[in-house]
Amino acid sequence: MKNRLGILVLFVVFSLISVYYLVRTWKVNDIRKEAAAYATGKDGKIDASKKQRYLDSLWKQDVFLGSTLEELSKQELGLGLDLQGGMHVILEVSPTEIIKTLAKGSRDPRVAIAVEAAKKAAVTSSTNFVDLFVAEYRKLAKDTKLASIFSNTSNRDVLNLNSSDAEVIRYVKAEVDGAFDRSYKVIQTRVDKFGVANPNLSKIPGTNRIQVELPGIDNPERVRKLLSGAAKLEFCEVYSLQEINPSMEAFSALLTKIDLESKIKTAENKIAAKDTSKSSLASALKTKTDSTGTDSLANANSLSNIFVASPTGGLAVRSKDTSRLNAVLKRPDAQGIFPANLTFLYDVSPVENPVTKEEVVPVYAVKDHGNAPIEGDVITNAKQDYDPMTGKPDVTMQMNALGARKWKTMTGANVGNSIAIILDNYVYSAPNVNQEISGGSSSISGGFSVEQAQDLANVLKAGKLPAPTNIIEEATVGASVGAKAVSAGVLSSILGLVAVLIFVMVYYSKAGWIANAALLVNLVLLLGVMASFGATMTLPGIAGLVLSVGMSVDANVLIYERIKEELTAGKSFITAVGDGFKNAMPSIIDSNVTNLITAVILMIFGTGLVKGFATTLLIGIFTSLFCAVFVSRLLFDYNIKKGKTINFKTAWTEKLFKDSNIDFIKKRKLFYIISSAIILAGAISIGIRGFGLGVDFKGGRTFVVKFEKTVNTEEVRTVVEGVFPGSNAEVKTYGGFDQVMVTSAYKIDNTEPEVEKQITAELGKAVASVNGNKGKVMSFSKVGATIANDTIWSSLKAILYALILTFIYIYIRFRSVAFGFGAVVALFHDVLVILGIFSILNGILPFSLDIDQAFVGAVLTLMGYSMSDTVVIFDRIREYLREKGSSKEPIETTINNALNSTLSRTAVTGVATLLVLLILLIFGGETIRGFIFAMFIGVIVGTYSSLFIAAPIVVDAMQRRLEKDGDAMKVVPAVEVKK
């Protein structure tokens, strides 16, 4: 092997980096366990605030090789919602309210009618909402210019009555997009301040939707209010330190008193426990001592030191001490110390103290918070600009007439003082007032960077347009459900991995050990890469992990089967190994590219479970390719250098598939009939019984209810009917006969947070006892009608794109329409068979067979697997056609021989993959059982179609071409080979 040293160095570097990131993940989890142990009381319960205080104390401290706990947390292999519980939400920024606000100066009643019509049309259309509105308005007012509705004094620098409809449409779309960006910023700030470890917030491309994942959340009601509440922008005066100095002295005295009480209580506890050997706090927190030998945490823990000087001037508090300050301010003896209209608010952006290197948060003593003299509704525009005198970035702001009058009064009374700009109870800026400002136009400067100025402009504009966010998809997973999923995931992973390792070792003898070593290295690299990206491990991700290990066997099998053929041809072991690796490469590359196409499409169109699976699959493609090709070769070369010969077969596998001579092509019409019969049966079932559509395809709410013992679904349906008046409730067994899934579209269009709380509470009461069988709601999910429609369209597009890209790739690689046609027909065959099976078996098997996005992900994955299997066969067919290009051998014979020559590879890869899927199906947990079942059936169908559908269709297509050309002999044609 060329460049052996370079590859060895690369392997060592990759391995060390992967191990490093995995150790970082282990370290941060170890710290969390220490925090939980520290916060666990005598009753076994964990004090959440105490645990958070422990973590806060280490947040900015070096805890592992120069990395802080914060840095470790950002690059760890975290657990998804399904593995630790939490909440998943998709928010939609309502464009209807934005358009109404932009047109509020117009008295045209047709605007409201067009908005409502566009709102209804949006449910079943993927067209931009602004375009839908314009289309509906033009139906009502063909000759009315849009400028007459949207042009007003606040946007006169952009629009006027002479502006064209195209200009108005661009303006409205820009405002809608801007409102979405501002809403995203607001939601991002709220999530960051929520105190959740590793929250995930992202924009969904091509939509005005935001996806939020909050692991560990156990208060869904609070999250709903937090995410869907309107942004509140306020302008408030700020007390100077001189004004509140007497109050600060009194507050300092209170802090000293509280410190003393705490010390006395600690001493009493020590005496009671007869423990005077060490400081319980210092030992529990395992803190360092400073240069003077004093316990630094003990000093920092003193409340009298809670306030520090802000690097930007004024007061500040350490980030880790904000919760402690809040607690003290709520104490009864703290009430009355400060003026009644004073509220301490934090700056939205913590800063680093240049001396101590600690993260501190500036604190402002704000006047009249909650009853501000000026609020965001007076803002007409704000934008990032540049100071004409200094050339530095600043922010210009315009107010309406009412705001201008209030602003003049407020600035005139506060010359030399600060005015805080507050959004959602956080101070975004507190500029000093240099002079009275009249006219409603202001310039805010303060040493901003361009990005900071843009952010402040967005904050100011957040009060300009109401952009309410509606929760259109929601899922809540309880911690106990997550713990169960972790156990299922770990168990299935270990069993699946062990099963594959044993199978490979038994089948390939000593060569199996090399393949297994490569598989284990692949596992380490895969997990390490995921950790370095800060990826989140979900239950489908675990399935993808184990499945990628199973499918990575394929590359080793391709290589080993090639080496066996070279050895059979009489070549020396060294030559056979070299030629085996070389000749297997085209098939390995082709099969991995087809899997890559599928993984990329899943990444683009998938969300939630599917995206977690796609992430693992995508990374696994590259790591498994590297390990199979390079790591395996290094191990072979090592054995060759030692003069060792490696055996590739055992006594019972030696004769398997040897000299196989199955006539696949001759019986192709029989298999066409069998496949047609299965597809027809499926079509009849679909026509009569239909599908069990998942909630993400039809919209609605889904609840998983767990009972103490076996429960009858009809009894549950009778009990819960009253919870969903006027709407059908679907109840089906879910993961065993003691658990059911309840689905209903009741009030699905109502986005009020109180509705979710009410329905969940009523269902909880209804299932609390079903004929004496106690039930409990374990998890909840909601999908609105609009997003359900979008999910259907995105799923159909994903499958369509997969088919198109597959055909293009096959055509480019094989330069033959026959091969591309055969591959696409086989894929259509696979999809139709799976759909039919799911319809036929729906309601028969004891787990959900709903058609949902996870099912689509499974279909796309099996399409990739089937295509990978097919392309390996096509590679061998192409090779045989090239070798027999000048012979008189019939096409059927040539292709039949090619199929037999790849039979061992097809069987071994199929068995290894099915073995993994079977274990995942049994032990993987209910969340992914339908997904894995689709994969399991898909692998069988995909293997079948590669042999009995795809290849025979290539034969038929080539024969038709020859007959068209007048060649009655139907001999092997010369094939152009693209390398």
Automatic annotation (TrEMBL):
GO terms for cellular component: plasma membrane. The chain crosses the membrane at residues 5-23, 485-506, 513-535, 541-560, 592-610, 616-636, 670-691, 792-812, 819-841, 853-874, 907-925, 931-955. GO terms for biological process: intracellular protein transmembrane transport; protein targeting; protein transport by the Sec complex. Pfam families: Sec_GG, SecD_1st, SecD_SecF_C, SecDF_P1_head. It is a multi-pass membrane protein. Belongs to the SecD/SecF family. SecF subfamily. Part of the Sec protein translocase complex. Interacts with the SecYEG preprotein conducting channel. SecDF uses the proton motive force (PMF) to complete protein translocation after the ATP-dependent function of SecA. PANTHER family: PROTEIN TRANSLOCASE SUBUNIT SECD (PTHR30081:SF1), PROTEIN-EXPORT MEMBRANE PROTEIN SEC (PTHR30081). This is Multifunctional fusion protein. It comes from Lacihabitans soyangensis. The gene is secD.
